[in-house]
Design brief:
InterPro entries: AAA+_ATPase (IPR003593), ABC_transporter-like_ATP-bd (IPR003439), ABC_transporter-like_CS (IPR017871), ABC_transporter_ATP-binding (IPR050763), P-loop_NTPase (IPR027417). Keywords: ATP-binding, Nucleotide-binding, Transport. By secondary structure, the chain is an alpha/beta fold. The protein has ten helices and 14 strands. It has two domains: 221 residues, Rossmann fold (3-Layer(aba) Sandwich), CATH 3.40.50.300; 67 residues, Alpha-Beta Plaits (2-Layer Sandwich). The strands form three sheets. A six-stranded mixed sheet has the order 6-7-8-3-9-10, sandwiched between helices.
């Protein structure tokens, strides 16, 4: 797919020398969902704010749909929809008027059919005449998305879109994002909920201390860095791993009732058969065995540990 957002050596420094972004390079493909993962202060919001023109870059270049965000700001910004973390809505305004006003800010002609389509897509049409203050937190977030979509953007930035939203509404939001992607919108979201990225993203980006540690296809990343573990549950607890089983890949659980074996699923031989034979030879009695695949959260934590080392 063609690149719709191109970021080259983007840097942002503040007075005093703090670098919020340290030479970020990133190409975002048209029609994809890219999830940016990072802890607080990693640079996620600064990156989005800079692309959207809210923050001025110290150096580097960003284009959106071929339009430079500095030299051709209006054209670039017209292609972007932004849903901020904060719910900053006029409490006494009505939903339809709020979305209509946002469309007008971008100089788009009045089109009630477009507004109705957006509100229906976000399950807000029956709330069109409600005041913002009458809505739940989840509904207010939907209004923020409706405002961001009101001028028909090609790229949508969602900065922590499900922060403070309960699990059920979060899953509803995932369906909304999937529907937006199906309609051709490119979506970049930042999130603290790693299961959110695992559920809906096509690619994962990990950012820490203003640097992009990696950007990779989600499935490829999990296949490359994901680990699989075999848990051998014992009938009786033990205090240490028997000498014949000692290996960097074998550890004892905290309660002493399980041996945890980490292995590579892509290897020609997993070593499971050999391990189980050694367990039997050592006189240990198996109660059960179970396997688990490492999650995106495990990978994320490991990456941050490597970066901190």
């Amino acid at each position: 797919m063609p690149t719709i957002v191109d970021i080259q050596n983007l840097r942002k420094s503040y007075a005093g020398g703090f670098e919020a972004l340290k030479g970020v390079n990133l190409e975002i493909e048209q029609g994809e969902i890219l999830a940016l993962l990072g802890s607080n202060g990693a640079g996620k919001t600064t990156l989005i704010s800079t692309i959207c023109g809210i923050t001025t870059a110290t150096s580097g270049k960003v284009t959106v749909g071929g339009h430079d965000i500095k030299d051709d700001f209006r054209a670039a910004r017209s292609m972007i929809g932004l849903v901020p973390q904060e719910i900053n809505l006029e409490p006494f305004e009505r939903v339809l008027n709020t979305v209509r006003f946002s469309r007008g800010l971008f100089g788009r002609p009045a089109d009630e059919a477009v507004l109705e389509k957006i509100l229906r897509q976000l399950s807000l049409w029956d709330k069109k005449d409600s005041q913002i203050r009458e809505l739940s937190g989840g509904m207010k977030r939907r209004v923020l998305i409706a405002k961001a979509l009101s001028h028909d953007p090609k790229v949508l930035f969602l900065d922590e879109p499900t922060a403070g939203v309960d699990v059920e509404l979060r899953k509803d939001m995932w369906e909304i994002v999937a529907g937006l992607k199906a309609s051709g919108v490119t979506i970049i979201l930042t999130t603290h909920y790693i299961e959110e990225a695992e559920a809906i993203a096509d690619r994962i980006g990990v950012i820490a201390k203003g640097e992009l540690l990696l950007v990779e296809e989600k499935d490829a990343l999990m296949a490359r860095m994901g680990k699989k573990q075999l848990e051998v549950q014992l009938t009786e607890p033990i205090t240490e791993v028997p000498l014949t089983l000692q290996s960097p890949d074998v550890e004892l659980s905290a309660d002493g009732r399980s041996l945890i074996y980490t292995y590579d699923t892509n290897a020609e031989r997993t070593g499971i058969t050999k391990l189980l034979s050694k367990v039997a030879e050592s006189g240990l009695v198996l109660q059960d065995v179970a396997t688990r695949q490492s999650s995106l959260e495990d990978i994320f934590v490991d990456l941050l540990k490597e970066d901190a080392a």
